[in-house]
Design goal:
Length: about 140
């Protein structure tokens, strides 16, 4: 009988220790989903910020391309302008005795090109997409 009492005395502390470990493990497992959810939320927020940064970078690059194209168009328009050609041409040497001739009614010294629908003027309004083309978000 004494061996049975000794075994019972040994089982009781072991049982208490097992119950204590079980309580700790159960508490950890109950809180594990909350910890996983918090970690996933942090990663989701990080990825959202990364996606926003990539989207904003694409918009900035697209706007820079549009600005470069607009500057090239302006340079072509100015280079083809008859006003620039008139300003850049060398003045003629003055003649010693000007001939008396009636002044023309219109200024025929600068050639004028007729405006056609294909020749743009600098005051025309352009579509907003000519300046900025935002990328559509999903």
């Amino acid at each position: 009988m004494s061996s049975l009492v000794g075994t019972t005395r040994q089982c009781s502390p072991n049982f208490d220790r097992v119950r204590e470990y079980t309580d700790v493990i159960c508490f950890s497992f109950k809180n594990l989903p909350y910890a996983i959810e918090a970690e996933l939320s942090a990663w989701t927020a990080f990825l959202q910020r990364a996606m926003d940064a990539a989207y904003n970078s694409e918009v900035v690059v697209d706007n820079l391309h549009n600005l470069i194209a607009e500057q090239r168009r302006c340079v072509r328009e100015v280079a083809a302008s008859h006003v620039l050609a008139a300003l850049c041409e060398q003045p003629a040497a003055p003649s010693p005795a000007p001939s008396p001739s009636p002044a023309p009614a219109d200024d025929s010294r600068t050639p004028r090109t007729p405006r056609t629908p294909r020749t743009p003027t600098s005051l025309e309004r352009r579509a907003p997409s000519a300046v900025s083309t935002p990328i559509q978000r999903d």
